[in-house]
Design goal:
- The complex is a heterodimer of chains A (about 200) and B (about 425).
- With about 200 residues, chain A is of the alpha+beta class.
- Chain A has helices at about 45-55, 90-100, 125-130, 175-185, and strands spanning about 15-20, 25-30, 35-40, 65-70, 70-75, 80-85, 105-110, 115-120, 145-150, 155-160, 165-170, 190.
- Chain A contains four helices and twelve strands, in the order βββαβββαββαβββαβ.
- Chain B is of the alpha+beta class.
- Chain B contains eleven helices and 19 strands.
- Chain B has helices at about 1-10, 15-20, 30-35, 55-60, 80-95, 115-120, 170-185, 210-215, 265-275, 285-295, 430-435; strands spanning about 60-65, 70-75, 100, 105-110, 135-140, 145-155, 160-165, 190-195, 200-205, 230-235, 240-245, 255-260, 280, 340-350, 360, 375-385, 390-395, 405-410, 415-420.
- In chain B, strands 10-11-12-9-3-13 form a six-stranded mixed beta sheet. A six-stranded antiparallel barrel of chain B has the order 14-17-16-15-18-19. Chain B has a five-stranded antiparallel beta sheet with strand order 5-6-7-4-8, with helices on one face.
- In chain B, a hairpin with an 8-residue loop joins β11 (about 240-245) and β12 (about 255-260).
- Classes of the chains: A alpha+beta (about 200), B alpha+beta (about 425).
- The interface of A and B includes residues 129, 152, 170, 172 and 179 of A.
């Protein structure tokens, strides 16, 4: 059984960075998503319901991602999945527990990850600085996710509707934010909507 | 190109005659900075921060690197030296209560019918007899019989275990156990999930830690009957589950409390707030060291890749009727040699001279070189309970040398201190504080 507890931000408050001069880059933390690590699918009605929600016939393979509404199901390893639920519907907790019932192992992992959303016309240029993957949309489509080294840190990368998402272990979040902000300097990134967020990354 | 040109010149011809090697980038010399790219300065090594990092900084902690982690070394008060701060913190733990951030420990959850069998194979000690709700200290060996890592593992339910590793070896342990699971023993029904990032962890230590625990965590009966030494339970901290383990690295009455990382700083603040009336202090790595040396507990300084479990006084843990990684190597004659360097306690004979860190142990410092080196100091500190310097050392045939007087010398620091070899357990040898 997954215990649904509101997860916190690794920054104490949401970290938001935005390019000032030209709207070419947005970088912000996506906090408060529900994230569950899944393994050992049980089969039966709960799994069928989950597959039906994602409109798929089988669970995604390693490197594949399926989405439905505000939910993402990522194949992160052999027999391992990461379920991310972003929508804040009233029945989210119940639905999450229902999904978790489809697996023998379902571990709450929202506090383990920090998620960044990177969008804008310079997003791919920024991401290319940190990893060796070919992120051209023809190759790195919305059906693809990757567990890879980004700026020397193990990250999970995928595309959401309007942004690329970068998940990193919580303890690395501030370091990675520093790296991203420095790497994005050429795009005129400034710190924050809510005043000076620099203190969060120093 | 430069090397090819030089080679051709040395051979008395030109590049055309000598030929070239297969060209691979970079074709022309480039600076090391270009190769390093952005991975320089403070990005050379990615820094990891615990969920309580901002609290530590705001409390004036002096932070130190511990591998990739930033950890509080100590929390000096205005005008206080780092050494004095560590002594104050350690003394407060022994007399009242202290709390320390142990979120950096490696944490793994093991599931499956064969989880206990898996533990039997990777640890030297026995796991199949561990009851639900109990924790056990475990030692892992390398294939060559040397100690690889140690930590505690707790049985949360029939097929569910929670394992902790040292901060330093967490990554290597994960690599090792996944290799075992996937390659060596794929037939075992066991799944391992690394949950290091998910859980923030606080250790409460000291004679008042039980009262403080029960004041902050709901639904926990901290009495000896309900939660004895090496037992585990769970309670509530606000909306979150709090896992509570009665285990102790300090050698005192102590608990480790784990909550989801997003609640870590709130838990820390709650302990600090409620602990004021108990005289609480946060303590850092220096005080941890003082406390564990007093108790004779080993860390990376002693788990140095050259010590066996028996060298460290942990030979009683080795099970004789089951195989485990490293067991066969233990029968090598060199690892059964009675003169091997063994863990001992060391105290200055005059009860006041500071022990030289890393000092070599010799019988006679005045003897002309070469002098036989009998061992070395691995850890030194000031004991808050004995009010004098103490240390741990690895000394040849050390267990037979208790009460013997030798010398700790450091030519580099120009120090020579006469020392008495003792048991490594300076504090509470009967374990009454642990079980109290």
């Amino acid at each position: 059984m997954v215990e649904v507890v509101e997860p916190g931000s690794a920054f104490g408050a949401l970290a938001t960075f935005r390019s000032a001069a030209k709207p070419v880059l947005d970088l912000c933390e996506v906090a408060h998503s529900r994230i569950v690590e899944l393994a050992e699918p049980r089969g039966g009605p709960p799994l069928d319901a989950m597959l039906s929600t994602f409109q798929i016939k089988r669970l995604p393979d390693v490197g594949e991602i399926r989405s439905a509404g505000g939910s993402f199901l990522l194949g992160t390893g052999f027999g391992r999945w990461l379920l991310i639920v972003e929508e804040k519907a009233a029945d989210t907790a119940r639905r999450l527990e229902h999904f978790a019932d489809a697996f023998d192992i379902a571990l709450e992992a929202a506090d383990a990850w920090t998620q960044f959303a990177i969008s804008g016309s310079a997003a791919l240029d920024l991401l290319a600085k940190g990893c060796a993957l070919d992120l051209h949309p023809r190759v790195f489509s919305k059906d693809v996710c990757a567990t890879t080294r980004f700026a020397q840190v193990r990250c999970v990368l995928f595309r959401a509707t309007n942004s690329h998402r970068l998940l990193v272990g919580r303890s690395y979040a501030v370091s990675l934010a520093e790296w991203l902000v420095e790497a994005a300097e050429e795009f005129g990134l400034v710190h924050g909507e809510q005043g000076d967020r620099r203190s969060a990354v120093e | 190109m430069i090397k090819i040109s030089q080679t051709a010149e040395a051979c008395g011809g030109g590049i055309a005659e000598g030929g070239t090697t297969t060209f691979r980038p970079p074709y022309v010399p480039i600076t090391l900075g270009a190769l390093a790219g952005p991975h320089g300065g403070h990005h050379f090594l990615t820094t990891r921060r615990t969920p309580m990092h901002e609290w530590h900084r705001s409390a004036g902690a002096v932070m130190m690197q511990s591998g990739p982690w930033l950890r509080p070394q100590c929390y000096p008060q205005p005008g206080e030296s780092l050494e004095a701060a560590a002594r104050r913190e350690a003394r407060t733990v022994r007399e009242a209560v202290g709390l320390v951030d142990v979120s950096t420990l490696g944490k793994f959850e093991l599931f499956g019918h064969d989880a206990a069998e898996f533990l039997e194979r990777i640890y030297v000690n026995r796991w199949s007899s561990l009851p639900i709700g109990r924790s056990r200290y475990g030692v892992m060996l390398r294939e060559d019989g040397m100690v690889f890592d140690d930590g505690t593992t707790s049985r949360l339910s029939d097929r569910h275990y929670f394992m902790t590793t040292t901060t330093a070896q967490a990554g290597l342990v994960q690599r090792r156990i996944e290799h075992c699971r996937q390659v060596l023993w794929p037939e075992l029904d066991v799944r391992i999930v690394n949950v290091t990032e998910q859980w923030a962890a606080v250790a409460l230590a000291g004679p008042k830690s039980r009262s403080l625990l029960m004041a902050v965590i709901d639904g926990i009966d901290g009495s000896n009957a309900a939660l004895p030494f090496m037992a585990c339970s769970s309670g509530r901290f606000g909306p979150a589950t709090a896992r509570v383990f009665r285990i102790s690295f300090s050698g005192d009455l102590a608990y480790e409390i784990y909550v989801p990382a997003g609640h870590g700083e709130r838990l820390w603040r709650a302990f600090v707030e409620a602990g004021r009336s108990f005289g609480i202090t946060p303590y850092g790595v220096d005080a941890i060291n003082a406390l564990r040396i007093e108790k004779g507990h080993v860390t990376g300084a002693e788990l140095n890749g050259r010590t066996t479990a028996d060298d460290l006084g942990l030979g009683r843990l080795l099970k004789s009727d089951r195989d485990f990684i490293g067991k066969r190597s233990l029968s090598r004659p060199g690892l059964r040699e009675p003169k091997r360097w063994q863990l001992v306690g060391v105290a200055p004979a005059d009860r006041k001279s500071v022990l030289p860190p890393g000092g070599k142990i010799v019988e006679n410092p005045d003897r002309p070189a070469p002098t036989a080196c009998l061992g070395e100091l691995t850890s030194t500190t000031w004991s808050p309970m004995l009010d004098m310097p103490v240390g741990l050392a690895l000394v040849s045939g050390g267990r037979e040398r208790h009460n013997e007087r030798l010398f700790a010398v450091s030519p580099l620091m120009k120090q020579c201190v006469q020392v008495e070899i003792r048991s490594p357990v300076f504090f509470d040898p009967e374990g009454e504080r642990l079980r109290g």
